[in-house]
């Protein structure tokens, strides 16, 4: 199922961050995380939280952090400064008439000034991770709400498709009741065309052959299974838990029965009904892939 959520947050130091979550259809749960440097350790905790909320779908979760523009403070390296100063003064003394070195020229030498590196405070880092996790939970809740909204609409589509399949099944059942009559009429027409008035086939032998062919064309089991599948699918829709995979399995069973119904058909009308059933079942199968 598809969905989108966005949650903005602020750290204690004033820097801001944003979670963006996107969900598309998928047979299983596939969470793809994109985390900034320094927060990779949250990977396992984030996956655990997502796994508690979702069972299917390809979910992309991206975290962006916008830090305040703070230029690092430059501090001199005492050893490098002392070494540079000695070298510059010694060189200046050796060159007659050379101007004495300025402080700016010495500080501009490579390695004399260094950016001050501030070690991370473990307490602050732990607080940042907690803030990120709480915001992720909020983003998951928003994504879940978006998917539930889509699921409500999808449920109506599925119920409409199941109603269509149920109606086609009942029409097929009515048409299938005429199968023995059609088989007999077809056999008699064939025999009359071959033998004409010279036909010498006992009535009981003809009845036995008609019964044999009608048995092969009997679709009552397929009709009963289609009815049972419709009932099972409607029951699934009433359950308050993930049903996507079971609904996909039922859609496969629907397709199998619709195919068999068409293969056994002895009338053009029943063949057309089986084709309509196949179309409705295919739409049901496509929609089932969107269900959690």
Automatic annotation (TrEMBL):
Names of required cofactors: a divalent metal cation
Domain of life: Bacteria
Location of the Endoribonuclease YicC-like N-terminal domain: 1-155
Keywords from the named record: Endonuclease, Hydrolase, Nuclease
EC assignment: 3.1.-.-
Regions that span the bilayer: none
Limits of the Endoribonuclease YicC-like C-terminal domain: 175-292
InterPro entries, A to Z: YicC-like_C, YicC-like_N, YicC/YloC-like
UniProt keyword Plastid, yes or no: no
An annotated Gene Ontology molecular function: hydrolase activity
Similarity annotation: Belongs to the YicC/YloC family.
PANTHER family: UPF0701 PROTEIN YICC
Entry protein name: YicC/YloC family endoribonuclease
Organism name: Roseomonas elaeocarpi
Lineage: Bacteria, Pseudomonadati, Pseudomonadota, Alphaproteobacteria, Acetobacterales
């Amino acid at each position: 199922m598809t969905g989108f959520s966005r949650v903005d947050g602020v750290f204690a130091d004033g820097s801001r961050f944003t979670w963006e979550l996107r969900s598309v259809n998928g047979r299983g749960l596939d969470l793809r995380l994109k985390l900034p440097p320094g927060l990779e350790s949250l990977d396992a905790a984030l996956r655990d939280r997502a796994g508690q909320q979702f069972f299917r779908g390809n979910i992309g979760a991206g975290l962006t952090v916008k830090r305040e523009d703070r230029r690092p403070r430059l501090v001199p390296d005492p050893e490098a400064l002392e070494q540079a100063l000695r070298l510059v003064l010694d060189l200046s003394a050796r060159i007659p008439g050379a101007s004495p070195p300025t402080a700016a020229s010495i500080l501009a030498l490579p390695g004399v000034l260094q950016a001050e590196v501030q070690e991370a405070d473990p307490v602050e880092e732990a607080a940042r991770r907690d803030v990120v996790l709480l915001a992720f939970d909020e983003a998951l809740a928003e994504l879940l709400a978006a998917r539930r909204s889509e699921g409500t609409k999808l449920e109506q589509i599925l119920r409409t498709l199941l109603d269509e399949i149920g109606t086609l099944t009942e029409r097929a059942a009515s048409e299938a009741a005429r199968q023995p009559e059609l088989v007999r009429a077809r056999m008699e027409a064939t025999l009359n065309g071959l033998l004409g008035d010279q036909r010498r086939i006992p009535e009981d032998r003809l009845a036995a052959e008609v019964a044999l062919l009608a048995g092969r064309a009997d679709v009552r089991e397929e009709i009963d299974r289609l009815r049972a599948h419709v009932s099972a699918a409607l029951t699934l829709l009433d359950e308050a838990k993930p049903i996507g995979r079971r609904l996909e399995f039922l859609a496969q069973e629907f397709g199998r029965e619709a195919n068999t119904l068409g293969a056994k058909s002895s009338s053009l009308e029943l063949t057309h009904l089986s084709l309509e059933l196949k179309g409705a079942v295919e739409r049901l199968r496509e929609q089932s892939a969107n269900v959690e």
